[in-house]
Amino acid sequence: MMPWRSWLKLGVFLLSFYPAGVMFYKVYRAYVGLPVDLGPDPPQTLALETGQWAIRFLVIGLWITPARYLFNAPSLWQYRRMIGLYALFYVVLHFWVFLFFILQLSFADLGQEIVQRPYIMLGFLALVLLLPLGLTSFQAAQRKLGRNWKRLHRLVYVINILAVLHVVWIVRSSYADAVLYGSLVTFALLYRLLRSQVEAVRKFHLLMVLKGADKK
Tell me, what's the pLDDT at 173? Predict the structure, then answer.
């Protein structure tokens, strides 16, 4: 019988795939001529949805390590690779929607868009930096790269910053998402910096606060 931790991991995997599954189903229905709710501009809707899930998984992946320490939950580490690969999956999906549905596979237009629109250049750069992290996310690559593996995977900090700037540049009306993601990325990076420099931060976790509250 599969242990509960394996069931939990499978559940996280399926939940992470669910948004993509819904989008695939909607595209299929549209392709065969069935009614589907993709708004007045389906390519733009798909681009926005894939982009939202891409940055969500990037931010979740960035927060796994701080959450592990703040909640004293080392078991969270077992989800780092999965969440990171899903972040890559949604970033690639976002790029593919843009290339296939919006640019109609015109690589000449892609080059012009990257040069002329800074936010597209930032998103494309984030994808380029994320690809080697996905390719080296497995244990064999970690063993082969040694200490360089950690140095390489610190690029995730830069990628998250690029993703937030990408969102900020796209926004035309409400900055709520940009502020939310920007705040989450800032706090995650600030926590990592403080934890590396301040012993009190290294020893602190939220369970200490809860235990102190119980004693009172």
Answer: 63
Structure tokens at 26: 């909607």
Residue 105 region by backbone torsions, left for phi larger than 0, else alpha for psi between -120 and 50, else beta: left
Distance, in Å, from the CA atom of 141 to the CA atom of 211, rounded to the nearest integer, reads 41
DSSP states along 102-162: ISTT-HHHHHHHHHH-HHHHHHHHHHHHHHHHHHT-SHHHHHHHTHHHHHHHTHHHHHHHH
The pTM of this model reads 0.91
The encoded tokens of residue 179 equal 């502020």
Buried b / exposed e over 34-69, threshold 16 CB at 10 Å, is eeeebeeebbebbbebbbbbbbbbbbbbbbbbbbbb
Tell me how many degrees the CA angle 113-116-119 measures, rounded to the nearest 5: 75
Question: Tens of pLDDT along 37-51?
Answer: 888 889 999 999 999
- Listed by start position, the domains of the chain span 42-215
